[in-house]
Write a structure and sequence with these properties.
- With 370 residues, the protein is an alpha/beta fold.
- The strands form three sheets. Strands 2-5-6-1-7 form a five-stranded parallel β-sheet, sandwiched between helices. It has a two-stranded antiparallel ribbon with strand order 3-4. It has a two-stranded antiparallel sheet with strand order 8-9.
- Strand 8 and strand 9 form a beta hairpin.
- The chain is globular.
- The chain has 18 helices and nine strands.
- The relative contact order is 0.11.
Length: 370
């Protein structure tokens, strides 16, 4: 029961109690074929939001995680594999399936086999997948969806990683050509590094320039959290949480879904009654349990980058390159000029309404403790 209330992974079912406005907006975008890039800092619940909308509205989809893909050729093959799996879900019966394969995908040499238990499998036997071939496969899938009057979605998660495997941008061009022609498929893009992802769709030199609506995901409101936490607190302890407890929860987690769930799962599982002191102890225990993960992230930074990160944890600034910031941080202006862009690209630091700040609250608490 409690793991479903405060999941540590993807939120689904009753555990997904928020983002009402965002869900409605994303649903409308999918239904109207408006390709969308979901932009947000890491751990803001982008994946959970997309999956929730797709599942609730029973939309068939292909999901590619580009973090797990190591080459352009592998990405192309995965597109074909997922397309074949989706076709089996859309078309029922051996005869109908074979007919559709020959009608739409002859050039990919489809092979129909019977798997276990009695489920058909489609395999494309094409030896080499060309730039135009992926476009054709996606366009043909769109034609098939139109014939069946079905709305489909193609989700490209961790999509910023395509930069590393598609140096010539030919796969990006294939996706664009297919997306521009689609009538029944909506393309959704998201990732954990929002600055590189944003550049893919806003840089005029990129094939995907201006292809998508940019959907910026903000933090969940305190009001949403309050309503849900107090409702579940009354179910468990027959009384609401005190204002001091709520303030500690929000202060420690900074309204991050991942950290709200982690801290509240510990609280709801505890045999102790909720107190401010218990919240302090549970959060400290959580940071200790995540220490190795935090250290691994910080290990990717140079000493000066870590020093600047630590400073910005406590002192957000609108003037990161000023002499005042240089003096207070103990870093030269030139060092800040080389370090800050790296922190921004890796999403350690964000620029929000002109202010440069660290959003992830675990870094601040880590620096305080260790």
């Amino acid at each position: 029961m409690m793991t479903s209330l405060f999941p540590l992974g993807l939120a689904s079912g009753e555990a997904f109690y928020d983002r009402v406005t965002e869900r409605a907006m994303l649903k409308k975008s999918i239904e109207n074929g408006r390709h969308t890039a979901l932009i947000a800092p890491r751990r803001f619940g982008k994946t959970s939001l997309i999956k929730k909308v797709l599942d609730d509205n029973k939309i068939h989809y292909i999901w590619l995680d580009f973090m797990a893909i190591t080459s352009k050729e592998e990405a192309q093959q995965r597109f074909l594999n997922h397309i074949s799996e989706l076709i089996v879900k859309m078309v029922h019966g051996q005869e109908a399936l074979l007919k559709k394969m020959l009608q739409y995908f002859t050039k990919f040499k489809p092979e129909l086999t019977l798997g276990i238990p009695g489920i058909f499998n489609v395999t494309f036997k094409i030896e080499k997948i060309s730039h135009a071939g992926i476009t054709d496969a996606l366009v043909m899938l769109d034609q098939l969806a139109q014939d069946h009057k079905i709305r489909l979605a193609i989700v490209c998660d961790e999509f910023q990683e395509i930069i590393n495997i598609d140096k010539e941008a030919t796969l990006q061009a294939s996706i664009r050509h297919a997306a521009e022609r689609s009538q029944a498929i909506t393309y959704l893009f998201s990732g954990s590094k929002h600055r590189p992802l944003r550049r893919l769709f806003s840089g005029k030199e990129n094939p995907l320039y201006a292809l998508c609506e940019i959907f910026s995901l903000e933090r969940i409101s305190e009001e949403d959290y309050r309503d849900y936490l107090q409702k579940e607190a009354k179910n468990k302890w027959e009384q609401p949480l005190s204002e001091e407890i709520l303030k500690k929860i929000f202060s420690f987690t900074d309204y991050y879904p991942k950290y709200i769930n982690a801290l509240c799962a510990k609280l709801w599982f505890s045999d102790e009654k909720p107190t401010p002191e218990l919240i302090d102890k549970l959060w400290e225990n959580y940071i200790f349990s995540k220490k190795t993960d935090i250290v691994e992230e910080l290990n990717d930074l140079t000493l000066n980058q870590r020093k600047l990160l630590r400073y910005l944890c406590y002192y957000p600034t609108r003037s990161p390159y000023s002499h005042e910031t240089s003096k207070n941080s103990g870093l030269s202006v030139s060092t800040i000029q080389t370090s800050l862009p790296i922190l921004l690209d890796k999403d350690f630091v964000l620029e929000i309404e002109g202010s440069y700040r660290v959003l992830d609250p675990t870094f601040k608490y880590y620096f305080e403790k260790f």
